[in-house]
Write a structure and sequence with these properties.
23 strands, Helix Hairpins, elongated, conserved putative lor/sdh protein from methanococcus maripaludis s2 fold, alpha+beta, 6-stranded antiparallel beta barrel, Elongation Factor Tu (Ef-tu), domain 3, 401 residues, 32% strand, single chain
């Protein structure tokens, strides 16, 4: 059997080993060139981006969820009983004050009016005759033709008949009023609901025929928090107007402008909120009672505020915090109280001072009191934060290879 100790293409085993070693060295050199020039050295403090809080005057606004409510809402009930003979209700349409909505059988009430008017005329006639007789009695008493007692009786009789005439006229007025009530009219202008009781049914004062809600103006009711109450209560009590804006679920922003009309006199201790209400014009009829509303309430005069990116804010259970780079580039833990968003930045009410450098990217690699390598960047709105976090984490990872 022939020996096959020679390799392919005639290379010896020793030369093949040399080629493999050369390839390993070349691969090692190539991988070393992949590190960036900005990579941190092994054991160096993590690289983070920091920015100085932005100061500018702002007029704070706060947003709440609420519901639209009708300023006036009336349940239409009949004032007299009877059978419904006419229904003039078209559900969902607008009606004007005084429009006839239902008619109850008027014949019994017209008959009562006729009877009462006749009784009133009879009573007036008797009262007029008594006045004439009393006038004659005065002349006879002057001539000493009748006794004083007879004159007094005639005077008393005339007063009684006159009172009866007034009572009969009052009964006639009541009968005419009941006849008028047989025509059920709209007490306010607005949008009507459907007819709850239809033609031919017998109704009384306990029946609800339909309902009408006003639509020219509308309320937006919402629950404000304690800080909002403290901010707007003084303005409201002094009569100074507070602007409120509303946006519906299908709308962008807050296109409807109104005024804060009502702030309740106490806070709900269970929720820490206070009931508030604003009023809005509704000329285009786009707002209807019951709709969900996004409510934005203004804060009055502009005041200086410190703003930071939301990327800089961390959460520790129920507390919000930031890391500030202090002396020796060491991270300091600061608990902060926050306000609303303004132009993409978050208002910081307490916990941060003007001019301090806040970590805005690389937050997850920072430990309280530990040194960091800060890179100063402008304070910007929280956009692209996840991308920057990934870039910084990659740089730190490259530095630890």
């Amino acid at each position: 059997m022939k020996s096959h100790s020679r390799t392919i293409s005639g290379a010896t085993p020793s030369s093949l080993v040399l080629v493999l070693l050369a390839g390993v060295l070349a691969a090692t050199a190539f991988s070393g060139c992949g590190k960036t020039a900005t990579a941190s050295a092994p054991g160096a403090p993590p690289t983070v981006e920091v920015a100085v809080g932005m100061e500018k005057p702002i007029s704070e606004v706060q947003e709440f969820s609420g519901r639209l409510e009708a300023i006036e809402r009336v349940e239409i009930r009949p004032r007299v009983s009877g059978f419904i003979t006419t229904v003039n209700v078209k559900p969902g349409t607008e009606v004007k004050k005084g429009d006839v909505l239902f008619v109850i059988d008027q014949r019994p009430y017209q008959t009562e009016v006729n009877r009462a008017e006749a009784a009133s005329k009879s009573a007036r006639a008797k009262a007029e005759l008594a006045r004439l007789e009393l006038s004659r009695a005065e002349r006879l008493l002057g001539d000493k033709a009748i006794a004083q007692r007879e004159y007094d009786e005639r005077a008393a009789g005339q007063k009684e008949l006159d009172a009866n005439a007034h009572a009969a006229e009052a009964l006639a007025d009541a009968a005419r009023l009941n006849l008028e009530y047989a025509r059920v009219t709209a007490p306010i202008s607005g949008r009507i609901s459907k007819a709850e009781i239809t033609l031919g049914n017998l109704v009384d004062s306990s029946a609800v025929l339909t309902s009408v809600v006003s639509i020219d103006r509308i309320y937006a009711s919402f629950d404000g928090d304690e800080s909002t109450y403290q901010r707007v209560a003084a303005h409201n009590q002094s009569g100074r107007p507070i602007e409120v804006r509303v946006g519906l679920l299908s709308e962008q922003g807050f296109p409807h402008e109104g005024k804060l009309e009502f702030v309740d006199n106490q806070l709900d201790t269970r929720t820490g909120s206070v009931r508030m209400r604003a009023v809005f014009a509704n000329e285009d009829r786009s707002m209807a009672p019951g709709l969900f509303a996004r409510v934005q309430i203004g804060g009055g005069n502009a005041k200086n505020a410190l703003l930071i990116s939301d990327n800089a804010i961390g959460t520790d259970q129920s507390h919000k915090f930031v890391f500030v780079v202090g002396a020796g580039n060491k991270a300091e833990y600061r608990e902060v109280k926050l306000g609303p968003m303004v132009d993409g930045l978050r208002v910081v009410r307490t916990g941060l001072k003007s001019g301090e450098k806040v970590v805005i990217n690389g937050l997850q690699r920072v430990q309280p009191g530990a040194p960091v390598t800060p890179q100063l960047v402008p304070m910007a709105a929280a956009a692209g934060g996840a991308r920057d976090e990934g870039r910084l984490a990659k740089n730190d990872a490259n530095g630890k290879d």
